[in-house]
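Render this sequence as a predicted structure.
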Amino acid sequence: VTGHASMLGPAYDAGLVPFPFDLERARSLLAEAGWRDRDGDGLVDREGEALRIGFLCASGTPPATVIGPYWKQSLGAIGVELVLD
């Protein structure tokens, strides 16, 4: 998926190319934006605030049981905490 529209709907633009999955590039972009692990707790922070992102989805659904944990692990690898709700 390359946008907000469902792949099954008429608004989906199949001509858009997805961004490559590149954790090192993500880490670099975060550092350029001032997000660094200054206190050694494994989370990047800026101005004293750790970078935490909330992910809200219905429990028991594929996003909650498969995608959420995968995103949490991937983001954790670059110092971002994903809070699954």
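Summary. The two ends are 22 Å apart (CA to CA). The longest strand covers residues 52-55.
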